């Protein structure tokens, strides 16, 4: 018997609809002066059981690490939804804001009923959705970010090292590479870079010739550019 877990780590958006599953609104939580927020889960198909947990979130070169925390409280922690039913989840801050931003995720996990895990099952799929949650610094949400880009050409394309030198998270919404007026690459990473962390992207470029490459990364807190020689 095997069990497969599909994990979705969500970016900032008004809401998310998982086809043939359930919807979540919103898909990003910010706490600070407002010590409580809510998520609404709507089940669109068959009856489902869910569990909810909050974890602290850190990064090391783009690798996410999660640890148990009691700094965010979620209620209810388990619930059952019939088809077309909805549940509101309360997320409450259990710490005092300070000069730094603090990062968490609220995981909403579909619990596979025991009968579905009986002998004879080949693959059982559950959904685990990680909603970003941020505790803002005392000064509030930073309107602008600071992303340091160091692109380098490789034998087959380009490597882009990005460092978030600001005090708040950044979401990489669009990354482009061009050579003069010729576009070479356009992707939508959707990656978060937490404050003070770094990430590396590697891409192949099929049509690049000799000469500098122009790199641009658009985030939710500004657009940042650099050149690779």
Structure commentary:
By secondary structure, the chain is an all-beta fold. The chain folds into two domains: 2-135, Immunoglobulins (Immunoglobulin-like, Sandwich), CATH 2.60.40; 147-228, Immunoglobulin-like. 0% of the residues lie in helices and 60% in strands. It contains no helices and 20 strands. The chain has strands spanning 2-9, 16-17, 22-25, 29-31, 36-43, 48-60, 63-68, 72-75, 78-81, 86-93, 102-111, 123-135, 147-153, 157-164, 170-179, 182-187, 191-193, 198-204, 213-219, 222-228. Strands 1, 4, 6, 7, 9, 11 and 12 form a seven-stranded mixed sheet that branches. A five-stranded antiparallel sheet has the order 2-3-5-10-8, with no helix packed on it. Strands 15, 16, 17, 19 and 20 form a five-stranded antiparallel sheet that branches. Strand 6 (48-60) and strand 7 form a beta hairpin. The chain is globular. The model is unreliable at 1-6 and 11-15 (pLDDT under 50).
Q: Topology of this structure?
A:
Elements: E1 2-9, E2 16-17, E3 22-25, E4 29-31, E5 36-43, E6 48-60, E7 63-68, E8 72-75, E9 78-81, E10 86-93, E11 102-111, E12 123-135, E13 147-153, E14 157-164, E15 170-179, E16 182-187, E17 191-193, E18 198-204, E19 213-219, E20 222-228
Parallel strand pairs: 1-12, 4-12
Antiparallel strand pairs: 2-3, 3-5, 5-10, 6-7, 6-9, 6-11, 8-10, 11-12, 13-14, 14-18, 15-16, 15-17, 15-19, 19-20
């Amino acid at each position: 018997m095997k069990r497969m877990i599909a994990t979705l780590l969500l970016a900032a958006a008004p809401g998310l609809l998982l086809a043939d599953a359930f919807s979540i609104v919103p898909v990003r939580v910010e706490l600070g002066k407002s010590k409580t927020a809510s998520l609404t889960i709507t089940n669109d198909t068959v009856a489902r059981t869910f569990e909810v947990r909050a974890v602290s979130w850190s990064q090391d070169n783009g690798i996410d690490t999660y640890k148990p925390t009691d700094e965010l409280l979620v209620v209810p922690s388990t619930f059952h939804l019939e088809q077309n039913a909805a549940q509101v989840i309360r997320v409450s801050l259990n710490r005092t804001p300070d000069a730094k931003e603090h990062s968490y995720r609220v995981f909403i996990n579909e619990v596979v009923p025991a009968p579905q895990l009986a002998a004879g099952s080949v693959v059982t799929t559950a959904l685990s959705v990680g909603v970003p949650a941020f505790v803002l610094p005392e000064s509030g949400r930073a309107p602008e970010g600071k992303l340091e880009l160091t692109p380098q050409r490789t034998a087959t394309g380009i490597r882009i090292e990005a460092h978030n030198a600001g005090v708040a998270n950044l979401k990489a919404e669009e990354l482009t590479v061009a050579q003069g007026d010729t576009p070479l690459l356009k992707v939508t990473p959707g990656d978060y870079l937490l404050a003070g962390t770094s990430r590396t992207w590697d891409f192949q470029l099929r049509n690049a010739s000799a000469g500098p490459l122009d790199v641009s990364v658009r985030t939710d807190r500004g657009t940042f550019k650099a050149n690779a020689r």
